[in-house]
Amino acid sequence: MLVHFGAGVKVASVAAGDHHCLAVTSAGDVHAWGSNSCGQAGTGGSSSPAAPTNQPACVAGPSSGSSALVAREPMAAVAAGAYHSAALSRSGWLVTWGCGLLGQTGQGSTSNSLQPTPVAALGGVPLDSLACGASHTVVAGAGAVYAMGWAAALGSACNRLTPELLEDAALADEHVVKVRGPVRSRAPLPPGGVLRLVQCPWSRSPMQVACGSRHTIMLAASGAVLGCGWNGYRQLGRGDSEQAAVGRLSLPAGCVAKDVHAGSWWTLVAV
Asked: Considering only CA atoms, which of 209, 258, 218, 213 is closest in space to residue 237?
């Protein structure tokens, strides 16, 4: 089915959640359609699954008329979780909306955000990349990765809604400059949430990050691959199925990773 956005509108990129879709145009407007049960369509309210947003609605960007100044800035990227949405402005602000049950919108509570809302905790941090897992959101900028949402996706033992620095020896020699890969899941959502900061020194090598449903994979410029989070299907590539904090994946001898991708329950490493 062809989706119409209006005469002269050019779509730059798209993202899809479990039951909703997002598109960002070349002008920086974000359009959303589909289920709005948790506010993930960002139209200012919520609806039952039987009453979705049937046509693309401009919810962020210069043409949106949003009450939030940052949400009216031109947007550069969009990503969709299972029941939440995120956009990154061209000036580096993160804007989120939808389900906040696990803190995946980064708004400091477990409440749903019914319209695009700037993440105040990251104000002033120049962000340049964005990805969403089922119930977590990851952005990169200023030599760091910032992740919010389900603690299980970060290998944490506890859920928290306040920013927290994740310090791990496995990340000591790396920093992150790029994030990619929205992925969805219909997995049940546990109570609680976390807003977690993964920060690394500027002087280290760059890294890419991909989000699975409940896990996170990181690729360093050195070719090392690191991962954390839920590992029930062995998607962390460590030879076991235990949930884990940040650690290195075991690659075959002589293999240097060049790219990483993550599906809901799997990881792909290109060498």
From this structure: 218
